Amino acid sequence: MRHGKPHKRTEPEKKRGGRPPKLTPERLRVLRRIGLEHPTDTLDELSERLARETGVKVSWLTTMRGLRKVGLVRQRPDRTTDRKAEAPAEREPKSYGYTAAHREVGKGEDYPSSLTDAEWSLVSDVFEKKGRGKPPKYARRGMLDACCYVVRSGCSWRMLPKGFPPWEDVYKTFRRWTRQKKFEVMHDRLRGMWRERENREVGPTAAVLDSQSVKTSPQGGPKGFDGGKKVKGRKRHLLVDTLGLLLAVCIQPASVQDRDGAAPVVEEGLAKYPSVRKLYVDGGYGGQCAHDLRSRLGLDVEVVRHPGNRTVGRLLDAQLPLFDPPTGFVVLPKRWVIERTNGWNDRPRRLNKDHDRRLDVSAAWIWLAEARLLARRIAWDQLRAVA
């Protein structure tokens, strides 16, 4: 038996093979481009976008390591940063108001909320039916003017002026038109006319989703408490196009979360306008809600977050000097249009608080207020074209 040092192997040891990395240099370049195009997306959202473009699904941890390799860092604003910021310079708003040339001299029974002849000619066939049968006791135009008066002034039905038909007949007609969705048909027609004026297709391809919590009166009906806004009442879920015009409306108690109320209003909008492919939402609809809308409805959902968001932050190129994120009010792209629509809905006194028991009646007031606004715009635009 030989004793001594063990014999050394002269053959080189073979290296064990490992799994190749999923993020190849080419995929890292794609990831860098996606991160710069969508700097406020979460890691899960970036992973989904990478999977749709390259077909390779990676975890959020792998995505984070890949972002570091390509030189993208996430900057989160300091919590001690002052949130106050000067508001941007206000531009002079475009006026669509009435003038002496726009409104004709009436019989003394017209009110500022009443439709002019030009406005009534745009939607008269929606409310008037020509054919056999007994003619209506009261003119349909007077009925519509009474509804416009109520939504603009905020008065109760019993306080309608005597220049209008009796309030009982007006209320019954309003409820019948609500069941028949006359106000929605009126708005859809005017919305298509306005989109044609703006050189847009009648069927939109992009939409914006948001909600607005409003208080309710002691009339009763479904209501809840919104813990985020500290509002006891109802929540208006609106779906609008990129011009801020309504596509769908859904009224729910304020206790319903945004992520739970998103699906009904989006499905209602897609049923009317299947051409919609892009959807812009805020951070309240991010996460699982946005993932469900993408997978179930086939929409390209983009979450538009504030640049100073402290939860997600913002991806920046580490090779470039970092800058302080903006604070205070910031005009977010594709998101300000629906905030402007919510501002339009606050102007009629009937809509600054929900005074109705029924949810379908509350939605009908929104359709009527927005249709009234569009009718004024289109009639004024036609008057200027003739002049």
- CATH topology title of one domain: Nucleotidyltransferase, domain 5
CATH H-tier superfamily of one domain: Ribonuclease H-like superfamily/Ribonuclease H
Output the structural class: alpha/beta
Averaged pLDDT: 85
3D architecture notes:
- Helix 1 (25-37) crosses helix 3 (60-69).
- Helix content is 40%, strand content 12%.
- It has eleven helices and eight strands.
- The strands form two sheets. Strands 2, 3, 4, 5, 6 and 7 form a six-stranded mixed β-sheet that branches. The protein has a two-stranded antiparallel sheet with strand order 1-8.
- It has 387 residues and is an alpha/beta fold.
- The chain starts with 24 loop residues before the first helix and ends with a helix.
- Strand 4 (231-240) and strand 5 (246-253) form a beta hairpin.
- Among the domains are: 25-70; 182-386, 2-Layer Sandwich (Nucleotidyltransferase, domain 5), CATH 3.30.420.
- It has helices at residues 25-37, 43-54, 60-69, 117-127, 140-153, 167-179, 182-197, 258-272, 288-297, 336-346, 359-386, and strands spanning 72-75, 206-215, 224-226, 231-240, 246-253, 278-281, 300-303, 314-317.
- Mean pLDDT is 85; it is low at 102-108.
